[in-house]
Design brief:
Blueprint lengths: L3 H11 L5 H17 L4 E5 L2 E4 L4 E4 L4 H4 L8 H9 L3 E3 L4 E3 L16 E4 L7 E6 L5 H9 L8 H4 L2 H4 L17 E9 L11 E7 L4 E6 L10 E3 L10 H26 L1
Helix pairs in contact: 2-8
């Protein structure tokens, strides 16, 4: 039969209290792991948002030309020129980024809810509509921001993630078309149904309702949103090699502290 003193001794051995060093080490290790875990949108600071699924970095400002005091909307050629020439100073990394572009998409995306020959059967097929998985803006709308088809993003989306961005359109009202965004993909409609001046089109995206569409390049002014390939990097967290050395050191502290606890219990 196990006596009271023996039971207390066993309990003390099996469930030792964590020392301050153990608690601190464990907290730091968990912090390192959590900061290296995969996420969909990561705020890199300095007004830059990294999408680790698409491996692209969004400018947190949805409408940089409006912020600069310029026209909030452009015809397609103007939008391409604006983004190509846009430079952004990153105060966190003390770097100016100049490799911006318009968002892209797959012109023939089978995941869209409408795939066909537009505007007539003799035209080259392409995709429009909702749920387009191969569009950067569609991925942002549905996967990252939590939007739903044909529903206002601010009503159905993830407000915490939406708050990472600024200058985001919150309504379909207003005459500046800031909720319509050009992509960098253009197309020539080879059909006589369209007038010659309307056959040169580009794809665009409705960031209020989540649908992909096309429009003549010089018929409507839309927003030019800036994105760049890759990650801008982390400014305040050590490099992976440093993290590895830190982890080894912390594990050493934990093991040493564990041995000390065992000795003090004997």
């Amino acid at each position: 039969m196990v006596g009271k003193d023996t039971y207390q001794l066993i309990s003390k051995h099996e469930y030792p209290k964590m020392s301050f060093i153990s608690q601190l080490s464990l907290a730091i290790v968990l912090f390192i792991v959590s900061n290296n875990a995969s996420a969909m949108l990561i705020d890199r600071g300095g007004g830059l948002i990294y999408d680790d699924v698409q491996d692209i970095t969004w400018l947190a400002d949805f409408n940089p030309s409006k912020t600069l005091g310029e026209n909030p909307g452009y015809y397609w050629d103007e939008a391409v020129t604006f983004v190509d020439n846009y430079s952004y100073y990153d105060s966190v990394r003390n770097t100016t980024w100049e490799d911006w572009r318009l968002p892209t998409l797959n012109r023939l995306d089978p995941s869209c809810d409408t795939v066909g020959n537009f505007p007539s059967p003799d035209s080259t097929p392409f995709s429009i509509g909702y749920n387009c998985a191969l569009s950067e803006l569609s991925h942002l709308f549905y996967q990252d921001l939590g939007g739903e088809p044909d529903s206002a993003l601010h009503d159905t989306g993830n407000l915490t993630t939406i708050a990472l961005f600024n200058n985001m359109p919150d309504t379909l009202l207003g005459g500046d078309n800031t909720y319509l965004f050009w992509t960098g993909v253009d197309h020539y409609v080879d059909s006589t149904i369209y007038a010659e001046e309307d056959r040169d089109i580009a794809f665009a995206y409705n960031m209020s309702l989540g649908d992909q569409f096309f429009f003549p390049k010089n018929k409507l002014k839309m927003t030019a949103m800036a994105v760049r390939d890759g990650d801008v990097g982390i400014a305040s967290i050590p490099e992976p090699s440093s993290l590895g050395l830190m982890s080894v050191a912390l594990l050493g502290l934990l093991l040493a502290d564990r041995r000390q606890n065992k000795v003090s219990l004997k």
